[in-house]
Prior knowledge:
The model has no long low-confidence stretch (mean pLDDT 97). It contains 15 helices and 14 strands. By secondary structure, it is α/β, with parallel strands linked by helices. The strands form three sheets. It has a seven-stranded mixed sheet, sandwiched between helices. A four-stranded mixed sheet has the order 1-2-3-12. A three-stranded antiparallel sheet has the order 11-14-13, with helices on one face. Helix 4 (86-98) packs parallel to helix 12 (275-289), helix 5 (110-121) packs parallel to helix 6 (136-145) and helix 14 (331-343) packs across helix 15. Its cofactor is pyridoxal 5'-phosphate. Catalyzes the decarboxylative condensation of pimeloyl-[acyl-carrier protein] and L-alanine to produce 8-amino-7-oxononanoate (AON), [acyl-carrier protein], and carbon dioxide.
Amino acid sequence: MSRESLQARAIAARAQREAAHRRRHARTVARREGVRCSVDGREVVNFCSNDYLGLSQHPQVIAALRDAAGEGAGATASHLVCGHGEQHAALERELADWLQAPRALLFGSGYMANLAVLQALLGDGDLCVQDKLNHASLIDAARLGGCVFKRYPHADAEGAARQLATQAGGAALLSSDGVFSMDGDVAPLGELARVARAQQAALYIDDAHGVGVLGEAGRGSVDHAGLASDAVPLRLVTFGKALGGAGAAVIGDADLIGHLAETARPYIYTTALPPAQVAATREAVRIARTGDGLRERLNANIERLKAGAQARGLALMPSDTPIQPLLVGSDAQALAMAAALEDQGCWVAPIRPPTVPEGSARLRITLSAAHETAQVEGLLDALARARDRVMA
Ligand SMILES: *Cc1c(COP(=O)(O)O)cnc(C)c1O
């Protein structure tokens, strides 16, 4: 017998990643205070978090977490056993009310929620059609789900229609990010809704980066596109981005959500979110709903960054959202740019394949309502210097 060693394989794969500038490691963050923190011992301004409204450290959110912690640290069981408490029930009602949908169902994370939707709703022979740049969790969900999986070119609703038309039988789900997580652009939701209707497919929008940021009262990309919520029978909301916490919910049609609640394995076979975490999210929802002032500050920062980049000849990717990537191209240059920024006290994440397509490594700059004007200006100057140093 000549079985392969898993260790030998892991070591060889690591050497390959090393040679290709594709090693990844977690940075240790300390002394987080607003957008300032210390990373591996150096003081920086953070331009890579998804805390778009600064809610992760909002005093009322933290107070809600503390107050509810008296109920205990954990939910003690899955929802269908005894883990579904008053906090969970209230958050589901409040999300449905805010986002104008019939029903909401909580999940441990957005990743699990996407697995749940595709696994519970689609079976062998059903069709799932997705944007090529959808989040990895949607792609993985389709791969694991046993459905027929087809992808269309980025933001190409006609391409989606063509893929849907390839198969007449069975059910079909058309799924797209609302705001693309590594690009920052918004999906053509009106056109996708028309295509879904014409092709009798259900539309599922992953709005991880839209909720709290876009639309009336922060209702997200679907509202921003002027769509009635019944044009989109299913939406994903995550709590770890603009809401500053952790967890997720799928909201939408009551029959579909009811089906998930009784059959989706990533809902049934996992412990419910800690009640205090849910209480914090309820408070974050209250603040986000009425957070026009925060959104104004965020949008002013976005406009400032875009105008300043243009003035300095820095070609940001086209985006009106807090995700403002700067395309670099090579992995090595993306790493060098990020290091040059960090030397100047600006923390920006370099994003490389396989998270983004080959040859499109980039700096994923993210903005928050909590950034001050001077910090955004400081980033612009640092970007120009890093470019001159690295790209010359
Ligand atoms: C972050 C993200 C997810 C996963 O959400 P988690 O709650 O962090 O697991 C899903 N979809 C998109 C588009 C995301 O950006």
